[in-house]
Amino acid sequence: MDIVLDEITNAKMAELEQTQKDFWNIPRKTGVILNMFIKMMGAKSALEIGTSNGYSGLWLSKALKETGGHLTTIEFYEKRQSIAIENFKLCDVMDIITPIQGSACDVIRSFDDDKKFDFVFIDASKREYVEYFNLIKPHLTQKCMIVADNIISHAEKVQTFVDAIDNDDEFQYEIIEVPGGILTAYRN
Q1: How far apart are CA 161 and CA 130, in angstroms?
Q2: From 43, 45, 155, 166, which residue has the greatest number of CB atoms within 10 Å?
Q3: DSSP state letters, 92-151
Q4: What is the rounded CA–CA span in Å between residue 113 and residue 174?
Q5: pLDDT, tens digit, 9 for 90 and up, residues 48-79
Q6: Which of 151, 85, 145 is closest to 123 using CA atoms?
Q7: pTM for the model
Q8: Pairing relation of β-strands 182-187 and 171-176?
Q9: Bridge partner list, 120
Q10: Distance between CA atoms of residues 24 and 112, nearest Å
């Protein structure tokens, strides 16, 4: 059974799926998985690193609407963030999203110590994945989940990240073979 989305969101998702290559969006299958993970966990505070045009953020935020949660999403490029914000408004999720424009590393460094996330989705500069992980770790709750995209398609670029997760006793992880591949990590 596929996820049921409202008519406006369904139409917008279909439109965004046509621009997947232009905006490096995740495949629909990955979006559905992210949506399910949020709902299964009952996640309340999610961080997305790499907003692009908002496609993955829509999947995350639609689930967070159901859990009573909030999404903080970071995008480096102002033009992409502007497009994402318009998509969030159209799909009626802007009220639970805090979009931040800038370098993900700089933004994460600026978080207050008490800023915590129970779900993180990483889909930005592949070579920086390990740095994102190191920077967000102090902001993760116990029993949190990290999902990182392009683990198979960009294996060489993300290897230091995979090694960091693999060598961290606090996390168990698995790589799921969807298009591009995702790494899912759970903090014990």
Answers
A1: 4
A2: 43
A3: T-GGGEEEEES-HHHHHHHS-TT--EEEEEE-S-GGGHHHHHHHHGGGEEEEEEEEEE-T
A4: 29
A5: 999 998 989 999 999 999 999 999 999 999 99
A6: 151
A7: 0.91
A8: antiparallel
A9: 47, 146
A10: 30
- For 24-39, write each residue's pLDDT tens digit: 787 888 999 999 999 9
| Two structure tokens written together for 176 | 């799921």
- Alpha-carbon gap, residue 96 to 93, rounded angstroms: 6
Q: Is the pLDDT higher at 44 or at 9?
A: 44
Q: Which helix (H) or strand (E) holds 175?
A: strand 171-176
7-17+24-187 CATH pick, 3.40.50.150, 3.40.190.10, 3.90.330.10, 3.90.20.10? 3.40.50.150
